[in-house]
Amino acid sequence: MEYKVIRLPYINSKRDHQKVADILNKEAEEGWMLDHILQPYIFFGFSFGEHSAILKRE
């Protein structure tokens, strides 16, 4: 089993939702499945890091 981590854009609108869907669909075409989404760290209202997704492939 293989794993990889990809960055995802922040979701602030319907257009951002579509971007994430397009990214995940493209990865699915290559045989990758979503395993887990990692949220950015938020500390006193400031976010550090970014959204990421862990993908796996058998």
Helix content: 25-40%
Please give the order of strands in the largest beta sheet: 1-5-2
Described by the principal axes of the CA atoms, the overall outline is flat
Structural class: alpha+beta
Q: Report low-confidence residues grouped into runs of 5 or more.
A: none
The H/E string reads EHEEEE
Major sheet details: 3 strands, antiparallel
**Terminal residue distance:** 5 Å
Q: Please, how many helices?
A: 1
- The residue-averaged pLDDT reads 87
Polypeptide structure, described:
The chain has 58 residues and is an alpha+beta fold. 28% of the residues lie in helices and 41% in strands. It contains one helix and five strands, in the order βαββββ. The protein has one helix at 14-29; strands at residues 2-7, 33-38, 41-43, 46-48, 52-57. It has a three-stranded antiparallel beta sheet, with helices on one face. A two-stranded antiparallel ribbon has the order 3-4. Strand 3 (41-43) and strand 4 form a beta hairpin. It is flat and about 40 Å long. The model has no long low-confidence stretch (mean pLDDT 87).
List keywords for this structure.
single chain, 58 residues, alpha+beta, three-stranded antiparallel sheet, two-stranded antiparallel sheet, 1 helix, 5 strands
How are the secondary structure elements laid out?
Layout: E1 2-7, H1 14-29, E2 33-38, E3 41-43, E4 46-48, E5 52-57
Antiparallel strand pairs: 1-5, 2-5, 3-4
